[in-house]
Amino acid sequence: MPVLQIKAKPNSRASALIQQADGTWLAQLKAPPVDGKANAELVELVARTFGCAKSAVMIKSGSGGRLKRVVIPD
After folding, report:
1. Residue 74 pLDDT more than 90?
2. Cα–Cα distance between 47 and 63 in angstroms, integer?
3. pTM for this entry
4. How far apart are CA 65 and CA 43, in angstroms?
5. Strand partners, 25
6. Which own/partner pairs from 66-69 qualify as long-range (CB within 8 Å, at least 24 positions apart)?
7. Considering only CA atoms, which of 57, 38, 36 is closest in space to residue 46?
8. 19-39 pLDDT per residue, tens
9. Which residues lie below 8 Å from residue 11, measured CB to CB, with a gap of 6+?
10. In whole angstroms, what is the distance from residue 42 CA to residue 64 CA?
C-alpha cells in the first residue's frame, strides 16, 4: 500500500491536492483544523483524486499536525 506524504493547509480558498516537485503532496483544504473537519476533508479529497473509497484511505500519522502520512489502496 502506497504512503503519501501530505502537507495540509487548512482554511484555504479552494480544495485542491497538488503534487510537489519533490514527490510530496500539498493539500489545500477549505475546512478549519477544528474537530477533525480538515482531516475528514483531506480523506475525501485523496479518495476522489485517486478514485478509491473514503473508507480505504487512512491517516497513518500526523492527524494532529500539518505533515501527514496517508495510506491509500493499490
Report:
1. no
2. 17
3. 0.92
4. 15
5. 6, 19
6. 66/7, 66/8, 66/9, 67/5, 67/6, 67/7, 67/8, 68/5, 68/6, 68/7, 68/8, 68/42, 69/3, 69/4, 69/5, 69/6
7. 57
8. 999 999 999 999 999 999 999
9. 29, 30, 31, 32, 33
10. 13
